[in-house]
Design goal:
Elements lengths: L2 H13 L3 E6 L5 E2 L2 E2 L1 H16 L3 E6 L2 H8 L9 H24 L5 E6 L1 H5 L1 H16 L3 E6 L6 H5 L2 H11 L4 E6 L4 E2 L10 E2 L1 E2 L20 H14 L4 E5 L3 H5 L6 E3 L8 H9 L4 E5 L1 H9 L9 E6 L6 E5 L5 E7 L14 H8 L8 E8 L6
Parallel strand pairs: 1-4, 1-7, 4-6, 5-6, 7-11, 10-12, 13-15
Antiparallel strand pairs: 2-3, 8-9, 11-12, 13-14, 15-16, 16-17
Helix pairs in contact: 2-4, 3-4, 8-9
The protein binds glutamic acid.
The site of glutamic acid (GLU) has 13 residues, from α3, β6 and α7.
Length: about 375
């Protein structure tokens, strides 16, 4: 297949996606005076076309702080967190009201889903969130996601709804993720730099050489760095990503060659493994000797007590932990089969010896290979 034909077939994956997650940031929804009615309308129009084609659509939308500011007579974005949260609290209602009215014109209901990082890191919450999404989509509604700014302020501080969008894409088993931005594509340097070149397609984010150090617009908080991280997370789980200007959403959904397409780098993995790799919070570290590092990385083996030289943290069997080498570099994440307090008695010892001495319940891996994901990033 020629390069061009290859690119076309990847774009078809976007237009043919059964389930799409679209992420839009504050700067694409607002003007100087708060929410921009025309921009919102254009966004919804494009999403409605996808819904009418039979695609499931999940929208991850910021804009709550910006929407709340005029209602609270705030002329400038407040600097303190409490006022930002108050603005988000007022604005979230207004935002959903607007989306609700726009989608209702076309007969679609919207469902507000406010999430915190905890919701995608704790397994029980993750399952609850998944149940809600699944049912909303079955019922034909459009879930509209934002961070729950009252109790979590990650996006306010780090502009990280991009990452949330990638995690939601995994959660709902999306076939495509579209990240809308106020620039129309990824460039090799800040787009205002005359030497900046537009990038049409990215095979692997880890191989990219772009300068994303300069921040974007003043309203948005994410910038390109978090978008690339989001693209990396989604692509690693087999989900193609399009980064495009907000006005290009309709074209992006049609599979037209606009913006930057990030090709999937990994295969679709189970939700549980994606959760383990990107969403979960590790409760501790297991430090591996060189032999165990090789066994895990090269032979994809389970981790046995014999290969562990130290244990850090406080965790219970069934919780996520990091596996590191002797220098502290994280090589994998896994679900541990022992409580932290039991490990000091068994590490460094052969399973055979442990079973002979302590009984058959010691015939278990510390981390089974099926509950383990390799985390090593490619080195340049
Ligand atoms: N989640 C917030 C919002 O929707 C934060 C975005 C921001 O910091 O502007 O507005």
């Amino acid at each position: 297949m020629s390069d061009q034909a290859g690119a076309r077939s990847q774009r078809t994956q976007i237009s043919g996606a059964q389930r799409v997650v679209v992420k839009v940031g504050s700067s694409s929804l607002t003007n100087g005076e708060g929410l921009d009615a025309t921009r919102l309308e254009q966004l919804v129009e494009a999403l409605v076309v996808a819904r009418q084609r039979g695609q499931d659509v999940v929208l991850v939308s910021s804009g709550a702080v910006a929407a709340g500011m005029p209602a609270l007579r705030m002329r400038f974005r407040p600097r303190d967190l409490a006022s930002q949260q108050a603005a988000a609290s007022v604005g979230q209602g207004l935002l959903i009201e607007r989306y609700g009215a726009l989608f209702a014109r076309h007969g679609f209901a919207v469902g507000q889903v406010l999430l915190t990082v905890d919701d995608v890191t704790r397994q029980a919450n993750y399952r609850n969130a998944l149940r809600t999404f699944t049912r909303l989509l079955e019922l034909g509604a459009v879930p509209i996601v934002n961070e729950n700014d009252t109790v979590a302020t990650h996006e306010i501080r780090f502009g990280d709804n991009d990452r949330l969008a990638a995690l939601v894409a995994h959660l709902v088993g999306a076939d495509a993720l579209i990240l809308l931005s106020d620039v129309d594509a990824l460039y090799t340097a800040h787009p205002s730099d005359p030497s900046a070149l537009r990038i049409d397609e990215v095979e692997d984010v880890d191989d990219l050489e772009v300068d994303t150090s300069r921040r974007g617009a003043s309203v948005g908080t994410g910038g390109m760095t978090t978008k690339l991280e989001a693209a990396r997370i989604a692509a690693a789980g087999g989900i193609p990503v399009v980064l495009a200007g907000a006005h290009d959403l309709a074209a992006a959904l049609n599979g037209e060659p606009i913006g930057t397409l990030f090709l999937p780098t990994g295969k679709k993995r189970s939700r549980r493994l994606m959760w383990l790799a990107y969403a979960s919070q590790a409760k501790g570290d297991l430090v591996l000797d060189a032999g165990a590092v090789r066994a895990v990385l090269e032979r994809k083996a389970s981790l046995l007590p014999a290969g562990i030289i130290a244990v850090h943290g406080d965790f219970h069997a069934g919780e996520p932990v990091r596996l590191t080498d002797e220098h502290g570099a994280v090589i994998a994440r896994g679900i541990v089969n022992y409580d932290a307090e039991d490990l000091p008695h068994v590490i460094g010892r052969s399973t055979h010896e442990l079973v002979a001495e302590r009984g058959p319940e010691f015939d278990r891996e510390v981390v089974h290979r099926d509950a383990l994901v390799i985390k090593l990033r490619k080195r340049r």
